[in-house]
Amino acid sequence: MSRKHQEPRGAPGSLVGTAPPVCPQPPALEVPPVRSPSSDSDRRPFLGLLSLPERRYLAEALRTETVGGVLLLLAAAAALVWANVWPHAYEAVREYTVGPAALHLDLPLEAWAQDGLLTVFFFVAGIELKREFVAGELRTPSAALLPVVAAVCGVVLPAVLFTVVNVAGDGHPAGWAIPTATDIAFALGVLAVVGSHLPSALRAFLLTLAVVDDLIAILIIAVFYSSGIEFWALGAALAGLVLFWFLHRRGVRGWWLYVPLAVVIWALMHESGVHATVAGVAMGLILRCHREEGEEHSPGEHVEHLVRPLSAGLAVPVFALFAAGVPVSGTALREVFTEAAPLGIVIGLLVGKSVGIFGGTWLAARWTRATLNPRLTWSDMFALATVAGIGFTVSLLIGDLAFPDDPHLAELCKEAVLVGSLACALLGTLLLKRRNRHYRELCAEEDRDEDGDGVPDVYQRQG
Predict the structure, then answer these.
(1) CB 244 within 8 Å of CB 283
(2) How far apart are CA 327 and CA 81, in angstroms?
(3) pLDDT tens-digit readout, 445-457
(4) How many helices, marked H, and strands, marked E, lie in the chain?
(5) Rounded CA gap, 237 and 232, in Å?
(6) What pLDDT, on a 0 to 100 scale, did the predictor assign at position 356?
(7) Which of 131, 161, 229, 386 has its Cα between 20 and 30 A from that of 58?
């Protein structure tokens, strides 16, 4: 598939993929040629200025995710109030069963939120991942190395810490994957509430990190938390995915065809025993995310633009409403810090994610000799890594999958996820707040457009 008609992107600070200068250069002024971003002598500075097309895409994506993050916070708060003030009503609604029994889809509302609505969330994650590989931060190995290494280290270290705590404390090592996830919507919601003005490069790194983290999470769910595989249903789901790919490859359009096909694929994946959200990621990865001649937007970009508000504004908040309702009491909080499994989750999120992401990024930068943006410091990276320890949505999901036969332990793990995520949010807020004035200055410089042509002045400078 050709990429020659895709909107160009350049290295930060270069003119590739940006608008030309408004004023022509005088003939006597010699402008240095713009070198290829792949040149070793013109390395992209780590956390440097994004290309203009990438910055515009990021602004649109983060605007939706930030609104969704605020709704997620409100839904989680409502769930906690509902579950503690009217616990019987909360349980009755959560366990209310709907759906066709003949198709094995007579599920509680909690399961519909977990298996159904989160499929929409992972569908968007699949599109984001595909776009990152063909047009985003992951399109070249050199650019992908730092966020990929950071995401992997941010998964491995929390899992190791959880396992050590539970093996030493005679706990439950089966929940090792619970503290490995980063919740981008919750993180951005926290940033929106506290009013931090992060530069676009920091937000882009957080978003790219979360996309890779989502891929690792869905692989963990598919490999370690799927059971009782029905191979006929799995084969039929794979055949449906092949048909989905074939129709998309042939340029067939029409929601009336793809939506029913997607529902059938989801139902077959659910019946197979593989977690149904895997179907969402697979369909997202199938969509083409590069532009061809005559296209203003690729199919993947168009579908993501339509579905992202549904994911961020409805699917994830409703899932939080049914998943985050746990009893809050002195006894419950004491158990979080005295039982091995919930304690491992808190340590994994607060220590494992922040140290793992920061350490992985620092080591990868040292190994590749990447140059940090001189306007930022490694303390900024550590603050961002701490915010990335907020592991709400996927962590709650894995908690339910890890302990399906022990409701009390599953509830304790949810409480630990809430405590660990809250601790990361508070610590990250404190670390970012002390540099907030500097961030405001950087954002103002990035946004300044004195000539009013819609292109920030920083992208029109040469030399």
Answers:
(1) yes
(2) 9
(3) 888 888 777 788 8
(4) 19, 2
(5) 9
(6) 97
(7) 386
pLDDT in the model for residue 43: 53
Q: Taking Cα atoms as reference points, which of 216, 190, 192 lies closest to residue 388?
A: 190
Neighbours of 3 (CB within 10 A): 11
Structure confidence by residue, pLDDT tens digits, 90-119:
999 999 999 999 888 999 999 999 999 999
Closest to 300 (Cα-Cα) out of 148, 52, 125: 125
Residue type, 287: L
Of 209, 181, 207, the residue nearest 66 (C-alpha): 207
Q: State the average pLDDT for the chain.
A: 85
Residue 332 near residue 415, CB atoms below 8 Å: yes
Query: What 3-state class would DSSP assign to 108?
Result: strand
Predicted confidence (pLDDT) per residue in 308-360, tens digit: 999 989 999 999 999 999 888 888 889 999 999 999 999 999 999 999 999 99
Structure tokens at 108: 């509680």
Please identify which residue in the block is written with the tokens 């200055």.
Answer: 441
Which single residue is written with the structure tokens 């989905």? 244
Q: In this model, does residue 25 exceed pLDDT 60?
A: no
What domains are there in the chain, each with its CATH number? 68-89+107-226+275-447 (1.20.1530.10)
107-108 and 97-98 strand pairing: antiparallel
- What is residue 439's predicted lDDT score, i.e. its pLDDT? 87
d(CA 323, CA 414): 8
**CA–CA separation, 143 and 370 (whole Å):** 10
Q: Are 139 and 145 in contact (CB under 8 A)?
A: no
Q: Are 150 and 355 in contact (CB under 8 A)?
A: no
Residue with tokens 């530069």: 199
- Residues 440, 374: Cα–Cα separation, whole Å: 16
Rounded-to-integer distance, Cα 220 and Cα 278, Å: 10
Nearest to 176 by CA among 348, 328, 302, 322: 348
Instruction: Determine how many CB atoms are found less than 10 A away from the CB of residue 152.
Output: 17
Residue with tokens 């349980």: 91
Distance CA 420, CA 211 (A): 21
The number of angstroms, rounded, from the C-alpha of 335 to the middle of its chain's C-alpha atoms is: 30
Instruction: Report CA-CA distances (Å) from 64 to 58, 171, 183, 311.
Output: 10, 40, 14, 10
Q: What is the pTM of this model?
A: 0.83
pLDDT in tens, 174-191: 999 999 988 887 887 777
At 35, is the pLDDT very low, low, confident or very high (cuts 50, 70, 90)?
very low
At residue 1, the 3 state secondary structure works out as coil
